[in-house]
Structures are given as structure tokens and as C-alpha cells.
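Example 3.
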Amino acid sequence: MQRGGPVTGRVVVVGNGMAGARLAAELSGRGEDLKVTVLGAEPHRAYNRIMLSTLLAGKISEPDVELAEAIGRGVDLRTGVAVRAIDRAAREVRTDDGDRIRYDHLVLATGARAVVPTLPGLDPARLPERVVAFRTLADCRRILALAGGARRALVLGGGLLGLEAARGLATRGLDVAVVHRVPYLMERQLDAVAGEMLAGTLAGLGVTTHLAVAPVAVAADATGVRLTLSDGRSLAADLLVLACGVRPDTALAEAAGLTVRRGVLVDDRLHTNDPRISAIGDCAQHGAAPTGLVAPAWAQARVVAQLLTGEDSLARYRPRPVVTRLKAAGIDLAAMGDPAGGPGEELTFADPARGTYARLRIHDERLAAAILLGDNPSVGTVIQLFDRGHPVPADRRSLLLGRAVGGAVATPAASPALMPEAATVCQCNTVSKGALVNCWRSGARTFDEVVAGTRAGTGCGGCRDAVAGIVDWLSRADPVEVGR
Amino acid sequence: MTLREEDGNVSVLPRQFPTNRGGLCQKGWTSAELLTHPDRLTTPLVRDPASGELRPASWDAALDRIATGLRDIQQRHGRDAVAVFGGGGLTNEKAYALGKFARVTLGTRHIDYNGRFCMSSAAAAGMRAFGVDRGLPFPLSDLGQADTLLLVGANPAETMPPLVRWLTEQRQRGGKLIVVDPRATATARQADLHLQPLPGTDLAVANALLHIALTEGYVDGEYVTTRTTGFTDVRRTVAGWWPARAEALSGVPVADLEATARALGTAERAIILTARGAEQHAKGVDTVTAFVNLALALGLPGRPGSGYGCLTGQGNGQGGREHGQKADQLPGYRKIDDPVARAHVAQVWGVPADELPGPGVPAYQLLDSLGTADGPRALLVFGSNPVVSAPRAARIESRLRDLELLVVADFLLSETAALADVVLPTAQWAEEDGTMTNLEGRVLRRRALRPPPAGVRTDLTILTNLSTLLKGRAPSYRLVHRKGPLLTPDADGPEADPQAVFAELRRASAGGIADYAGISWERIDAADGVFWPCPRDDGPDSPRLFADGFATPDGRARFHPVEHRPAAEQVCAQYPLHFTTGRVLAQYQSGTQTRRVAALRQAAPDAFVELHPDLADRLGVADGEPVRVLSRRGEFQAPARLSPAIRPDTVFAPFHWGGAARANSVTNDAVDPVSGMPEFKICAVRVERAECSGVDR
């Protein structure tokens, strides 16, 4: 390359998932000199993976998960086309339908694949009929087909994806049980207290949890599936959903000799060790590990687009702190950073009866970590403070209890007598309590007369009750006291 | 409101009218004070070349200076070297006459107005979705009946207090009020739910609301299928706006987004209203469109008691944008580049259609070109004060100074008038007849109480005078028949008769989108106003639009996919805070009028900078201490006002003041690509304690 300069010619994007489709949208209509070819292995148009659990819940139908595509504006999209190999010397990719497509720049957005645990009865190449991983739209269709006649479902894996799948199936009315090896749910994001409370919340939504047990074997046939656990129990269900994490899809990159650790290794420009090849999204590894989240994938797509179009040759990917969010009817969870993982002051609030929990760690006046579960009105503020590294409020309570604390809502004085003379009663016409009292003393004796004399209550009308209260107080109060 | 005159003193009385139901704020009550204010201009002023000062002059001398100057400049630099700048406070008659004056008398394409800074984004979004732009396509009283009312970037408790009576009624009936505003305003504090997004993220909030409406099944599929087009692209766009994404961007909790979508989606009657907070952005049109998309997906527009609308900012903000003050527009909301529209209006005006100039440029672009090599050399300003109200105001002030001839018609020496070569004293609202069109599209009468004081002329008279001097004859406004006496006496003949101008406006608007053909002053007087479109004398008017169809060729409303994009200027290490502007209750617009009313000055005497106490603490600023607000474009100074009602990452200031306290010195002049609306509502600033030595700049 192409050291910093824009690319002319053909950009080939391998993958039409969240990352690849986003990049295509970013590149569309950006100059005559840039032709973009997107190759998607899945047969359908780009869709929003995040909405699959909602699709599972039966609240939406397939067209609702479709994403906007950038076809026609310099973008050639080919779906149902898998890439077999990259020929770096010839600068071309070979597709499974025998095509060779030359590239001036290649972007790998091949995503990740669901992990199938090594268990007796599970052949990753050929899963039993009633066992499905939860990753793609095709997976989702299979689960939905099975769920149609099902009563009970098992979900293996109590991480974010597993719980979303469990929640979705429970919404359809299935009895759902989650099996998780670790003593509490979502251990990568939560602490034990939050994990337990989340399990309690899920129980109320029809999802039971089996914790600290490992699966040891799967037996499945056309009529059902049985999962044997390390504690000797065995759970029967009509279907088993595997949510045991994902693995970056690096096969193409490895075969082409690119540097791969857990994902395809990339630098701040998202370049692999071949400067003509970039990688973004779940298949890429920038720093310690791939994130598996959409926000970084889209930020990476933006940087690649800026570099390829020359819009900003200095664009660099700067990872932002990761926020994990689980939000479904009845569940509201946000987790960021490691609450136990460092120094600082700690704020906690727990209301187990209502399933509300907050734990925040503040270091150097910045939010270092937080777990918010349940009804936490501050959640938006906390996420923004964490994401942007802004200073936390001096009144820490507002982080736990929301903006209501320290808000500007003035409480009306219990009695007009206690109200200061200078207090403004009518904002629209700037009428103070003193002005109302003076009007009374000048002879006005009814509400209408006081209103006519002061114009209080003639704007928005919101203070009319307060004015009536003061008139009432004046009519009952000792004139001497009023006059004083 | 009603006026009473006793011994030359005018007092204001509220009037029971369907929109305000007798409500008046302090600005209304005190409005008559300006009629006899000592600062009132009652003689023309002409700048003396020797001393450089404005000196009283006769009308003949002032008008002659203008006519000579205009003629000379147009001879040397062509017709477009003269520009006209109007205002949303002008009556329909004046707005119409101003447009005709520019196109026919001056023959310039350069006319635009301050409504570009006010309503243009909502207008453009309404036009492209519904085929018509009427602030509210239903009477204001519908607000009181709404089960759910969503106000986006609107603060009527301060900017339009009588409207709050409808909000009160709405809540008393058990309705839910939801307010979207970065500040906990007086309006937001009354709401059942307040969404407090980071400035500039309303569009993402709207897309997320539609996303939730889709996933929760609130979308009215039947309505979308039968009454709209373009939903698929919008659906795919908002699929990318899952609530947690909007939450991280805007700071609005997902639970609040869900509650808002539910309240709108399950209500029998739901109304969504936007105002300047959502609209005054370089993505204002798209932001409004995002809320229009939401309203359409929920099936609100045209459903009884439901719909989308926008709250108008100026007295005649609606009528002022319908009859030809806009750069691209002819009367009746016609497009100036439409040959059919040109032919119709040219015929009414009695000129060949090919002599009508083409479209000009939007307000900011126009102001920014003044006095430059390719820009106009002369500007005539009616009813506006851009030195205070334009974005990046220091630059606009310098552009105005570069003009060869600046003429300002005003009744007070505004900051803009103070720069003028000629200032013409004009009549006030109580001294001239005319019509205004309110936010409901209801055409109202303004009745003169008494003639203007000696030495003062109406805007219509001034335009007539100038036409006579420039063209040798006055425009031919012909009044076919008159009932009752002419209330605005006019020494210069019937050409400046507002009723005659209105009669011609009716003909010029006939067949247009804003069709006034069936509206007469008598008809307005007989009813409580008349709602346009009203094409026939003997036909009905239109209180509610869209019941049967939209004003598009196929009668369907249009969805447009819109994406969030960042503000034109991002915060950075040097300018780390978001800055936003707005109004306070006791002041109006550029403050020229309200800053001169004693009671209002007492209520809101000074500019201020609203800061969160945490931010003030970090800056080492105490309440009331002067602070400087700096952006890449300039700075202003005002006392700090500490308030927990604002986000700690955002600073607010009202824009009513000029001079060293002019908030618009720092605002961003990035404009919306469709509407030309400047980005008043967000830019990046730094706030500093004002050093004592630096106070007097």
C-alpha cells in the first residue's frame, strides 16, 4: 500500500455480517475510483445479529432484522458466495463457485463461529437434529422450527448470549433451563451477588438455572434431547441450544499465511501483516483479544473506510472500554470494567427484593467499573461517564439513584406563611408572594381580584392553585400578622 | 389579546381565544409599553458621511438616499447586488409585499428571512413527508386531549406559557407528558418522563424509539401499507439503532426509551411535537424526519386527536414562510423554480414570467456573502436583528459593515440598525392592520388601535415609497371592495392598504399549497380565524389535515431513511464542553424589544451562562461570577448561573443579548444541507473564569 494514501481500484470485503455490511455502507458512494465487492457466505441480505433473540422471542419477523444495504452505489454485493482462498501473490480471492476476484485492498470480515463443546454425543460437523448453536439467522430458523412443538428447552451456557436465547425462548412460553459451569451467571461481567440476583430475576421470568455443573454427555434423537450433568443429574428437553461462546473465523487468514493469534492480528489501522489486507469485527484481534461486540466492529469499519477513501489518512482505531448490556422485558443489566479489579472508592446499593443492584468503582474521579442490575435510572449517565472518561458527580448518590437526587424540583412550602416574601409564585408574570400580599392589602379580596391586580396565573396557569392558596391564607390570617 | 386606549395610554387585556384561552405571559401584558417608549424611533436616521454618525433626516432625504444608492449599486453590479432580509414577525401582507418588492421592484433573487433560523428544518421535513408544511395540522386544543404527548426540544413553559394550559389539561385528563431536552427545563420538570439526551443526539433517540416500536409491535402495519411509501428502507435503517446503542450515544436509559415508545405506541391519541431544540442543527431536517417517521409508523398523522406537529417560534412564523420571503419561494408556498408557479404569480403581478428572478440562497449564506466580491453590496432589513440572532455573529456583523448600503426598518435602534446607513422608523403592531397565521395554520386578524405617531410610516408605505422612487410608480394593489373604514391612515394612497395587499395575496396564493383564496378579512373576523388551505369563499377551511390523504401526488406520506451523524463540531481537549442556546421567559428573540421593557428587564436583567455545579466547581467558578465562553469562532462573557438542571458536560446561554454578552458570537455557522438551518444548538466551547482585567473588552 498505500502507506496512508487512499485506495483506487477494487476493495473486496469478505463477509456481509454486521462488520462487512457496515463497511460497505461506509464505502458506498465515496468516489468514482473505488469499486467495492462484498462477498457474503450467508444466502440472505445483511441482518442485525443483536435482534436475533427478539426474533427468537417471536416479537418480530425476519424482515425486521434486515439492515440497510449499500447496493448500487459503487457496491457490488454477492450473497451466498463463500471465499475458498486468498492468493496474496496474485492479489485475488477464489470463491466456492470458481470465481477469482482481484483486489487492490482486501478486508476480512469473516466473523466468528459458535463453539461446540467437546462432549460425547456432539459432533461439531453434524449436530443432532434437536441440538442447535445460537449464532446465525439460519440457527435462529432451526431453533424456531424446533420450538414450534416444544415445551422444554435447555440452554448450555450462562453468558450473555445464552441468557438472551433463554429469555427469547421463555417469552415464547417454553420452560427454559440454563446450565452453566460457573457458580454464577455471566461471570466475566458480574460479581457473585449480581449473578445470584440475575438468576432470581430470570426465575421470575420462567428461566431456571443450574449452576456450577458441567455437561458430561448429550443424548439426542428425533423425539428429544437429554443432557447429563457432572453432578449425576440428567435433564430432558425438546431442544438444546448451545451458547458456549464463539471462536473467530480465521481459517482463510491462516491458510493465506497471515498472522493469527485468537483472531487475525491487526494494528491501529486494522492492517494485518499484509498491508493490502485488513481485518475487522469478530475475526480480528486488536490488542489482547477479539471483543465479539458490535460497537468495536463498527468503529473499525469506520477507520478502514476513512483510510481507504482518504477521508482521514491519520484515522486510527482506538479501542473504547466495553459495556455489556442485557436488556429484555424484565431484565435490565449493564456491566463495564471489573468492579473488583483495582483500587478506588466503591459504591454499592442492593435491593434484593426488587432485584436491584448497583456496584461502582471510582478511581481518580473517573468511573473504573460498574454493575447495574434492575431499575437503575442512572444507567444512561453511568454508561456515558464510563465510555467518555468524564469526571463523576460530586454527589455520588446521583450515580446510584439517578438524577432525581440534587434535582431542581423545588418543594412548595408547607404553608404560605412559611414562604419567603420574595419567592416567585407566578413565573410567567414574575409575581412574588410579596406582590400578592400587597395586592390584598390594597383592597383586593377575591382570587379574581388578586389575579386581575397582579396578573399572577394569567400565563401558563400553573400557579393558580398556589395563588388560590395564598388568597385563602390571607382571608383567614390575622390582618396584623399579614401586614407585618 | 385586546387593547384599550385611555388618554393616549394603551393597556392590554387578555382575550378568550381558542388557542391561548385568555392566557398571557409578561411579554404580552407589557407589550404596549413599547408604543410610547422613549427609545422609539420617530424620525428617519441617515449616517452623516463626515462624522460617521446617524443623524435625524427627513423622509424625503432618507428615501432619496436609499433609492439613489440602490440604483447606483444595481447599475454598477447588477440587480442581484441588492438583497432583502425579512422576518417572521411581519404580517402576511408585509411578507408578501416584501417578496414582491424584491422580485418585481428590485428584480433581485436575493431575499431570505430570519425564519430560516427558526422553522426551516421542520418546514423542509414536513414538506418532504406530507407534501405540506403547516406547523400543526390540527388545532392546538387537540393537545389537551392527547393520551400521550411527546415534546422534543420544546420549552413552552418559558417560550410560550399560555400553551402550557393545554399541557395542564392534558395531564389532568390522565394523559402522559414526555419531554426530550438536554436541560431539566420548567417544561421538563412538569413531565411524567424527562429524557435528557446529550445535545445533538435526538435523531438517534428517534430511531431507537422506532426500533422499539418495531420490536414491541406498536407499528400500525395497515396504516403503513395503505397511507405511506418508503417504510422498508426506514425499517432497515432503524434496525441498526437498537436501544442500547442509542443509550450509549445519548445517555437516555433504555428503560426510558422503552417507556416512551410504549406510551406513544399504546395510546389512543398520541401527538409528537418538535421545536428548535431538535431543529436548530446541521442535521435538523433529518432529526425532524426521524420523529416524523416514528409518527407515521405509529399511524398518527391524520388519525383523530393524533399526529406530528412543530411549535412555531415567531409571531407570524407560519404565515411569514408561505408568501415569498423565502429565497426559493413564491406566494402560496409555491416553488420559484416551478414554471407553472412562476406563470401564475407573474400573471397576478402583471409582469412577464421570465422577468422573475430565480431562487436565491438561504439566510446564513446570504448574510455571509454580503459585501464580498460576488455578494450583494446593499441590504434592506425589515423586522430582523441578525447582528444578535445570526450564528457566528461577529462575522456577520463584519459582513454588514462591508456593505455599501445598509437600510434597516425598525421601531427601535437594534444592534443591526445601529450599523445602518439609513434607519427608517416603522409602525408597531398596534398601529397597523393585517393578518398573521399562527402555528395552527389559522389566519388571524391584527387590528390597528390607532395610527402610528407622527414621523413614523408602516412597512407597506415604505415599500410603496421606494417602489415609486425606483420604478416611477407604486405597485398596483387593487382593492375591489371595502367594508368599513381603513384603520391605517395612509397619506400615500391606497397602494399601501394592507387589505388591498391581502386581496392580491389571495389571488397569488390561489391553487398553491397554502391557498388563501377563500379567506377574507371579513371571514376571519366572523370566525375565530380561518385555517388554510381554504380555496373557496363558499367552501370550508381546514382545521385538520390528512384525514383522507396527504398533499403528495399519490396522497401517501413519504418515509425517508435518516441516519444519526455527529455534530458539525466535536468537543476536543481545547474546547471540551458542549454549548447550547435558547430563550428565557421574559425575553424575546434578539431582545431589541423586551430588553427595553422595565418589568421584563427586572425579571431577566442580564445574560447568564448556565453551568452544572460540578462543572463550576472544577472550573473554580462561583454562582454569579463572570465567565468567558470561547469557541473557535469567538467568545462572550456573562455571569455564571449554577444549576443542576443541566448536564455537567453541557453549557447553556440565552441568545437575547448583544455586545459582549452575545451568545451567538460562539455558535457554529455549519448549516443543514436541505434547510439551510444553522447549528445553533450545539458547538464545542471552553469556559474560563473571566479575569478582572479582561472584563472590559
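The domain at 131-244 of chain A is CATH 3.50.50.60 (FAD/NAD(P)-binding domain). Residues 120 and 217 of chain A are 5 Å apart (CA to CA).
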